[in-house]
Amino acid sequence: MARKVNLRIWRGDSTSGSLQNVEVDANEGEVVLDVIHRVQATQMGDLAVRWNCKAGKCGSCSMEINGKPRLACMTRMSSFEEGEEITVTPLRAFPVIKDLVTDVSFNYKKALEIPAYEHPADLGPGEARMEQIDVERSQEFRKCIECFLCQDTCHVIRDHEENKKSFAGPRFFIRIAELDMHPLDMLKNRKRTAQEEHGLGMCNITKCCTEVCPEHIRITDNAIIPMKERVVDVKYDPARWLGSKIRRREGS
Amino acid sequence: MTELERYKYDVLVIGAGGAGLRAAVEAREAGLRVAIICKSLFGKAHTVMAEGGAAASMGNVNSGDNWQVHFRDTMRGGKFLNHYRMAELHAKESPDRIYELEMWGALFDRTKEGKISQRNFGGHEYPRLAHVGDRTGLELIRTMQQKIVQLQQKDAREYGDAQANIRVFAELTITEIIKESGKIAGAYGYWREGGNEVLFEAPAVIIATGGVGKTFKITSNSWEGTGDGHALALKAGANLVDMEFLQFHPTGMVWPPSVRGILVTESVRGEGGVLTNTLGERFMFKYIPEVFKDKYADNEEEADRWYLDQDNNRRPPELLPRDEVARAINSEVKAGRGTEHGGVFLDVSKRIPAEVIKKRLPSMWHQFYELAGVDITKEAMEVGPTCHYVMGGVEVEPDTAAAVGVPGLYAAGEVAGGMHGSNRLGGNSLSDLLVFGRRAGMGAAAYVKSVTAVAVSEASVKAAADRIQVPFTNSGGENAYSLHQELQEITHNLVGIIRTGSELKDAIAKIADIRARSKNVSVAGDRKFNPGFHLAFDLDNMLLVAESTAKSAIEREESRGGHTRDDFPGMNDKWRQVNHISSFNGQEVIVRQQALPAIPKELFDLFDIHELEKYMTPEEIAKGGSN
Amino acid sequence: MSGVFSPSRAEIKERTLRTDKWWLQPLATFGVLFSFVIYATFRAFEGANYYADHLISPFYSPCLSEACVPEATIGGWTPISAQVFNFALSPALIILIFPLGFRMTCYYYRKAYYRAFWMSPPACAVAEPHKKYTGETRQPLILQNAHRWFFYAGLIFNIILTYDAIISFKNKEGEWGHMSVGSLVLVFSTVMLWMYSLSCHTCRHTIGGRLKHFSKHPIRYKAWTTISKLNHSHALFAWISLFGVAFADIYVRQVASGAWTNFYFF
C-alpha cells in the first residue's frame, strides 16, 4: 500500500543551499529515514545523510523534521497527515557539511572538557560495591545515545554562536550530573566547575532539551536543576557561606 | 585534487567498536601512539546495539560459576568447533575485563550485596551476563569512549595536545592495508566528509571492524556491517576461518517491513518470554536436540518452575542456543504455523507485570511501542530469524590476536574467527571483544617494540589512490545500490539459514557475476559525503565476504551451528575436525581444509566423557586430549 | 547575523519551520500570567475587603500592619507601622514579596515566563529575537539562585495560611465546628499551596536529592522518591495553586464587600 508523499529536502553545503521538492513513495509502517533512503536510491544518489542502526539506538540520523529536531529513524510516516508536506533539514545549531549532514565536532570538543571519572585508589578490581538505588540516577543519564538533539535545540547556542565557547550544553550537563551522582567518583569540584567553567548558569531551564530527548531522559528535572541546586549548596547558600567563614576563623 | 594527508603512528586501529577501543586503550597504555579509525561518528559503533550483556563467570549471582563452566558452555554452544585456546582465554579473562570497565566508570546493574548483577542467557548454565538493563553495549562503548577521552585529557595536561598520542579519525574509510616487503606498513583511505585521501604509516594494524550482516537482506546489523575488515585482511594476505558459520538471531522484528531484522534481545526470553505459533502451541519443546536433552525441560511445568528454582529444574527450551531456536522458528513458519508476516509470537505480557517489563526491558518496550505500535506489556511480539553475527573471521594466534601469515596485522572482535566455533552464545561477544581487544592491543604493542617500521612506497600510494578514483572514471556503469540489492537477494535465498549444495553452486556463480559487473560501478556527484561513492567500496568488501561464505558452505557437508544443509542434516564427527580457510589470490577466494587444533588434556578432562562422545570420533576420545 | 542565520549554518531564511501551533502555549501563558499580575497588583494596592467572618484573603495574610483589621491579624500582633517611610502601605505589599519571590524564582515559572514574556526562546527550535544572551550568570538573574530562601519563606506562609484555613471553621459568632463555602475555598487553596511547595525542585533537592548515597539514608530516600513523583506534576500544582489563591482572594473580597453571601453548611 504505497502512497505518494511530498518531501522538501534541504540540499546544499556551507556556501549555499535550498529546499528541494521531491515526490516519493511511502509504504505502510515506514519512517522518515526509509523514505529518505528511497529518495537516495532512486532520485538523488549523492544525497548525504548520516545513519547507522535505524532502531533509535545510535543517535546518528538526527535532523529537523517540520522544524523539530528528531531522529529520522524514529519518526513514523503515519504521524503525518495525508497530503502533508514534510520538510527535512539538517540540524540548525551546527555548521552544515552537506545536505542533511552537519559538523557536530563541537560536541566532541566539549566532551574533552569534562573531567573524567576518578576511581577510588584503594578499590581494586571486583572490590567495588554499589547499591542499585545509588546507581540508578546516573544510569538514567548513561542511556544517552549522543544524538545531540538536545544540543541542537538549546537556544543558548542555537541562537547565539558566541556562547559555544563557554557553554557545554545539556548533553554534557547530564554527563556532569552523572559523575557528580556516581557513588564512587572521587573528583570533588564538579559542582563549582559546572557553574564556573561549563556554563551551567547560562541555562534558563526552558526545557527544550527534555522535550526532544529520544531516550526520554529527564534532562532538566533530573540533571540540570539538581546540578543548579548543588551549585547553590556550594556557591550561593548564605548559611553555608557563613558557616565556612566561621570554621575557617576557628581553624586559623 | 587536494594534497594527500599523511600521518605516522605506532598502531593503527581500524574500527571504533568495543574491540577497537579496547585495543587502542591497551596499546596507548603500553606507551604507543595510536590512531583509531571510525567509519561513522565516534561512539556510534554497532556495539551499542548489543543488549543483553557481557558473559563473565564472576559468580555473583550463583557462586557455582567459574571459568571452567563458562569454557564448557562456550565449547558446547560452538559445537566443539571453537579454537580451544581462544575459548579458554576468553572464559578465564572476561571477569577481569568487566571489573576493569567498572574502574573506568561503568555502572552495571547491581545485586542486593552491591556486586555486579548477572542474568540468565541462552546456553549459559548459570546467570552470567553483566548487564545494564537492555543497553549493555551502549554502556561498554560509552565507558571506553570516555576512557579514551580520559587518556586524551592526560596527554593534554602533559603535552598540551589532547591528540598527541591517541587520535580518533571519525568518518574515515580505509580502502587498503599496505604491506612493504611482506610486513604491514600502513593503510590508505579517504575522509567520508570531503573525499580527500589519507595515508597512515604504522608498523601494526589492528582490524576491529565487526561483522558482515549487510551482505544479507534481513539483518540486525547497521550499514557499517559490510565486512570491511574481512575483505581488507583477505587482500592483505591473511586467512579467514570458517566463513560458512553465520548466526541467525532467532528473534528479529518482522513487522512493519521497515524495521524487519531489528534485534529483539534474547533477554526477553531470559526474563521469561515464551515462543508460540499461531495455534497457540509453545513449540520449542518439540525442538530440543538429543545433545541438550538433559539440560532443558521437556514440559511446561518444569520450564516454568525453573524461573523460581534454577537448581532443581531444567531450563526452558526457549533458552536453547540461538541456532537451535532460529531453526525451530524457521520450521514452524515453513510448516504454515507462522504469522501472516512470516514470524512467530514472543510474549512476556502474560508472565511479567507491566512495570517490571518496562524496568527490565526498557529499550525493547520503547522499540516496539515507537516502531511497531505494539505495547509489549499487553501484547505479544512478532519475531523471526535475522542475520546477526558472523562466527567466521580472520584466522589469528589466540594469545596475541595476530593474523596468521601477515606480520604486523591483528584482528579482534567479530572480525576475528575461531573463538565461537560454529555458533556463538549470547553475551559472549561483548566479553570476546574486551578480552581479545586487549590482547590485540598487547600483541601489537609487543610487535611494534620489536621491529623497525618500514616506510610506505610511493608506488603503493599511487596504486591505492588510483583505485579510489575508479568509480568516478567509469561512466554510465552499474548502480551500486542495485548491485547491493541483487547480492542481498542471492545471499538471503541461496546462502541463508537453510542451505543446499545446488543452491550454493548457483550462488557462487551469481556472486562471481556481480563481482565482475561491480568493476564497472560508476558514481554520480562528487566526493563530498557521497553515499553512492561509499557504497562502491563497501560493495566490493561484501562480495568477497559472500564469496568466502558460499565457497566454505558448499564444502561443509554437514549441519552444525550456524550452518544448516538441507542435503546433509545432522552433525558429522569427521567435519568437527576441519576448519575451512579462505584466502584470496587476487582474482578469487580459495577455500581449503585445515585440521582444527586438538584440545589439550587438561581442557579435555573438564568434560563429561559421555558428552564428548556426542561430538567426537572414538579415536579422539581414546586419545583423550592432545598431550 | 547570528544564531541559525550564522554563515556556517544551513542557509534557511525562516526562523522556524515548525508547522504546529507553537505560539499557542506561550500566548496562553502570557495571557493568564499577565491577567493574574494585573489583578494581584490591583488587589495589593486596594488595602480593603480582605477579611470577612473569619475568612482572610491569602493576599493579606499574615496581616502585620497597624492598619490591619484587628480580626485579620495574628492575635493582634502588628509590628509594622501603618506609615512606612511616611507612606501608607497596604498590608499586602509588606508581605507579597515572599510568595511572589517564590513563584518568580520557581524552576517551572522561570520556564513559563522566559518563554512567554521574554521569548528566550518563544518555543523550542524557534529563533529568539535577542542579540545577546547570558542566561542566569549575572545580575539580576543570578538572583534566581535564591529560590531556596523563598522556598523556606513559602513554608512559613503555608503554615500561616493553614492556620487561616482552620480559623475559617468558625461561624460568625466565633464558635468552632462550623463550615462554610469559604472554608472549602481556603482549604483547597492552602492544600494546593502545600502541594506546590512540596513538589518543588528545591524541596526535592533538600529532602534527599543532594545525597550521593541514598542507600545510607533510607528514610530520606523514601521521601525523595515520593517528592520526585509529586515533582512530575509541579507545573500542574503551580497553575492550580495560582488559581486557588486568586479565587480565594476573589471569594473573600466578594463576601467582604457584600456582593456574595458566604453560605454555611452547618
Automatic annotation (TrEMBL), chain C:
Transmembrane segment boundaries: 22-42, 87-109, 149-170, 176-196, 236-256
Protein keywords: Membrane, Transmembrane, Transmembrane helix
Presence of the UniProt keyword Transmembrane in the record: yes
Full protein name: Unannotated protein
